[in-house]
Amino acid sequence: MIDQPAIDAARVEHLRALGGAPFVTEMVRLFRGFAAEQLALLERAVATGDRPGAARRAHAIRSSAMNVGARAVQALAGAIEANATGDDAATLVERAADLRTAVLAAAGVLAGLADARATTPGAET
Fold it and tell me: Is residue 23 part of a domain?
């Protein structure tokens, strides 16, 4: 697994500055849904040997992760994208499992950040 901080707090604060806590909450909701959908498609691509499809799905996840500051997800998805055609099947399966774990962790941390900030009196500007 790639050693990266789970979340780029500066990116989350940038999103908050753009649209406040409701915007961060919506971005997290969109990330969770999109990442889950793309991850399922990536896992299916890996299971069926569709390496270009796995690379495309990894790219989509990487881009989405970048939007919300999910650094570990971004790094893992980037590794899958870059190595999908060169990795052996077992390594690709392992990378996909690591990515699933990172997506779930990032979604939880992001949701906690959005919820904590949205419920803190005076936090909304």
Answer: yes
